[in-house]
């Protein structure tokens, strides 16, 4: 907390960040792609310009997938050794077409 300005507001979650930015003309926050897409009618999304890019890039499934949007990261499944049968079934479902549709619907970028 000491790394932030004394005027920074620490909020409990992403929804609160979006609401605070919508209510304060000078506010800025970082949220995940799903929240940015959902909130596009209430807040303005800004592009990010990496050092090697001539112009800022807005977040979208396409720019995240292509790697041109610089503020994104992959998510991983981790298991303690070989996954149990139940854990493997869950992973398999998440990677299935039905699971990937849920990934897309919740604002994440599917792997396929």
Describe the model:
- The chain is an all-alpha fold and 112 residues long.
- The protein has a domain at 74-112.
- It has five helices and no strands.
- Helix 4 (85-95) packs across helix 5 (97-105).
Strand content: under 5%
- What's the helix-strand series? HHHHH
| β-strand number | 0
**Proportion of residues in helical segments:** 25-40%
Average pLDDT for all residues: 91
Question: Radius of gyration, rounded?
Answer: 17 Å
- Class derived from helix and strand content: mainly alpha
Distance between the termini: 38 Å
**Unreliable residue stretches:** none
What general form does the structure show? globular
Task: Specify the number of helices.
Answer: 5
Largest sheet: none
Question: How do you describe this structure in short?
Answer:
This protein is mainly α. It contains five helices and no strands.
Topology:
Elements: H1 14-23, H2 33-38, H3 61-66, H4 85-95, H5 97-105
Helix pairs in contact: 4-5
List keywords for this structure.
mainly alpha, single chain, globular, 112 residues
